[in-house]
Amino acid sequence: MDWADPSAIGYPVLFGGVLLGSVVPVVPTGVVVGAAAALATSTDRLNIVLVVLVAMAGALIGDLVTFAVARGGRSAMLRWFSRRQSAEKLEAARVRFEARGWQVVVIGRMVPAGRIPVLLAAGALGYPWRRLVPAAAGACLLWAVAYAALGVVSGGLFDHPVVATVIATGLVLLVTAVSALVARRREAR
């Protein structure tokens, strides 16, 4: 492996960054995907299809780990949620997961700061693995495509990889901020 070749470290960094950010939300995973997509578009070092697939794999594994932790500590999670939510809200969440859990998982993945609470609630409420895995896989694919598209736009507009990466990062942060603002306003209503 030639470590001087950006593609040699690009995919592992992409996977590791998305995985880490999916388990511990310290890494802005959308920025990592957008930057990799911008590099794929503005250079021949990375392949955009592989960027999407690697990002999806890192996100899916991270989501499944988060869900498994919540599921494994189900009784502790339920106690934690019970102290913060009324019994009626917990029952409403359980009914929502039973009726359209896959939609809740997809929306949780797409809304900034929505993924972890959704996965923790799903695990605590006993949402079945057989329903979570396909929903999470679809959500992670949709998420990876969306953030890669932002990177493709910037990479297609700017030939210089550094400029494309900076623009992709800015676009991802802007979309994230606007999404969070819209979500807060809806919640306030």
Describe what is shown at a glance.
With 189 residues, the chain is mainly α. The protein has helices spanning 6-23, 29-42, 48-72, 74-84, 87-110, 115-124, 129-157, 161-188. The chain is elongated.
Description:
- The chain is mainly alpha-helical and 189 residues long.
- 84% of the residues lie in helices and 0% in strands.
- It has one domain.
- It contains 8 helices and no strands.
- Helix 2 crosses helix 7 (129-157), helix 3 packs across helix 6 (115-124) and helix 4 packs across helix 6 (115-124).
Helix content: over 70%
Number of helices: 8
What is the N-to-C succession of helices and strands? HHHHHHHH
Structural class by helix and strand composition: mainly alpha
Beta-sheet strand percentage? Answer: under 5%
Distance between the termini: 54 Å
Number of domains: 1
Number of strands: 0
Any low-confidence stretches, pLDDT <50, length ≥5? Answer: none
Rg calculated over all Cα atoms: 18 Å
The global form is elongated
So what's the oligomer here? single chain
What summary fits the major beta sheet?
A: none
Average pLDDT score = 80
